[in-house]
Amino acid sequence: MADRADTRDAALLAPIELTGRGFYLTVGLLSLLILWGAIAYWTQFDEGLGVTGLHQPVSWGFYVTNFVFFIGISHAGTLISAILRLSKAEWRRPITRMAEVITVMVLFIGAGQILVDLGRPDRMMNIIRYGRYQSPLLWDATSISAYLTASIVYLYIPMIPDIAILRDRLGKRKLLYTVLALGWQGTEHQQKVLNRAIAIMAVLVIPIAVSVHSVVSFVFSMTLQPMWRSTIFGPYFVVGAIFSGIAALIVAMLVFRKAYGLHGYLKPIHFRYLGQLLLVMSLLWFYFTFAEYLTAYYGNEPEEMHVFWAKFSGPFWPFFWGMALTNFVIPVLCLVRLGRRTIGKVLIASLSVTVGMWLERFIIVVPTLSNPRLPFGEGIYFPTWVEWGELAGSFALFALFFVLFTKLFPVISIWEIREGREVGLKEVEERLLTYLPDTAEPRHAEPERGW
Amino acid sequence: MPSPSGGGDMRRVTGAPDRTVRALQWAMAGLAVLFIGGIVVWIIHLIRTAWQLQDVPSASIGISLVAIPVFLTLLGVILYVFWGLLGDRGER
Amino acid sequence: MALWGMVIDLDRCTGCQACVMACKAENNVPAVGAKEAHRGRIISWMQVLTEEDEEHPGEVKRFLPRPCLQCDNPPCTKVCPVYATYRNPEGIVAQIYARCIGCRFCMAACPYNAKYFNWYRYQKDAPGQNPDVSVRPKGVVEKCTFCHHRLQKARERALAERRELAPGEYVTACAEACPARAIVFGDLSDPGSEVFRLARSPRAFRLQEELGTKPKVIYLTEGEGRG
């Protein structure tokens, strides 16, 4: 039994066993971008935040935008993986591992953005020593720590049986896999422990994930600034996070599908379902955005309208309408009929949403700061090479983490695929039978009383 | 019950001696205890600071009422998995 | 316990900016240079804002000297993650440069834009500095402190001379410098002080009062008001 299954999933172990030229090229290119980012940050660390385009009043710009953006993407993974696991959706099996990896890797990048944004990063321990829980930044610190811990646990535990496969089959890195496999032998007791732990984590990780992006939104909505002070921000940001997360997940899946030849595992049906989810999130995002802006517009409060018009027709109109185009128009057009060319449409929609959600974060952060309440003078924000480099380096670092992960561990969960083959069909059939109406004889032959 | 059969054969793990591997594995568990324990201690430290300075202690207490149980639950899951998987090896 | 506040009479203000210059000299506020000023990085603890006439654009309708308004319900202190800014018992909102991590959350939260940031190390060489005021390093936030160092000096002098602090002994540099005497500074909790009286003038108003920040810089509107 083991031998037959072995060769069937050889494609999943191939990236770990062999390394091709494409890998080195990719790593090389990513390293160049990371180098740009590193030089950019070193310049900033050395000279001060003045090397960016920030000023008074726009004292938050790219870095805070990136922070919200990357933390938002982290909702891909764990949330999708957890929800699909809990709803016993069989099509999740080749997806969950990548989703969970995205979350863990991108959380580091997201949290790192705040550290990059600090004027005194050498004093970052002050947050630990002197933190104030009245400040939303401390809520962020706590919530993101919880989410990072939970995501690492939620990535690691379902990986254990796969690590055991590597321990037994792969020639190299024996010690690493043996240690990490925690003595997994697939015994019944061990399986019970594992499944129970995964089930608990799947439930636990969802409220933690919701709390993370809610507190990120509270950084803005707890201030008194026009168009930040909005009660809708918590749910709005969570919806946006799930939206951008699904898009990022689809892009990652398509990249690795091409790079590692996983067409047999990541099939058009998977992208169709994810595409439908993406469509739903696009509509939901549009609804929240519409409600937010209609409320501001109808209220016609002068300070809010300054910011509103700045976004609608003022200096920020390209970003605002670009956001509407890439977050709503293009995805809906692409995803509403997923019959043919599913993969192409889904890819375009996902790339579009990734750009669009970054624009959305930017549109939230900068225009409000750019239009202060007092006659301070409107602030125009032009990011410098430092901020562009930091953005590029951040993306590249995330991608590098991901790529290195796929060299050490299977990017698709092998044991879950096998589980799907061996017991998935039977389980689903049993479940379907419970949905069907009962065919047994009624116990009482008489008509019901009380009619 | 689905079978996430990973290892297959019951051959003894070759390579590194059993004891080193075990030590590293329990060290991982120890790290988890230290890390999450450290976070819990940190949150309590922040509560104490806010209390001493009378600086909105309610915020610290309120958040810790949610955060500390969450972290302890995570630690519980981690240790449950470690104990459940590692502890099983002696039982065969 | 004193409650330090300020009243600025907009009818007297001529927009001469003597207050701005006095503040910069007194508090070692760095001159950031023309290039940085062009990028929007001027640091000006006391800043004279100009309100333009909507019907005649370009015509200044009102000069508004704006120090830190030292709110009694400050939105900036709530969001500081490290106790680098807080309201002290006498009503002054402190700014502790040694603690600040430069996250600029307080800057984003202040509805009056009263906080400024050291985007570079602006004070490498600064001749003629006031030795009573610490020079700020790069990467921290700074703002008007109602010349708190003058309060400390006055208190110490009074203590050495074994007497109470006399009213008028502690004044901010801007109040002292204003040639039109538009800026009055004092103890809002002292019923005999001029700020106490002026704060209750029918001409008095507070900026963005509806936000609930309870600023302790009170403005007197031009003209006769309801008086």
Describe it for me?
The complex is a heterotrimer of chains A (451), B (92) and C (227). Chain A has 451 residues and is mostly helical. Chain A contains 18 helices and no strands. Chain B has 92 residues and is mainly alpha-helical. Chain B is 72% helix and 0% strand. Chain B contains two helices and no strands. In chain B, helix 1 runs antiparallel to helix 2. In chain C, 21% of the residues lie in helices and 18% in strands. Chain C has seven helices and ten strands. Chain C is globular, with a radius of gyration of 18 Å. The model of chain C has no long low-confidence stretch (mean pLDDT 93). The chains are: A mainly alpha (451), B mainly alpha (92), C alpha+beta (227). Chains A and B meet through helix 8, helix 9, helix 10, helix 11 and helix 18 of A and helix 1 and helix 2 of B.
How large, in whole angstroms, is the Cα Rg of chain C? 18 Å
Measured distance between first and last alpha carbons of chain C: 31 Å
Per DSSP E runs of 2 or more residues, the count of β-strands of chain C stands at 10
Compute the number of helices of chain A: 18
**Structural category of chain C:** alpha+beta
**Strand order within the widest sheet of chain C?**
8-1-10-9
Provide the helix percentage of chain C. Answer: 10-25%
**Largest sheet of chain A at a glance?**
none
Overall geometry of chain A: globular
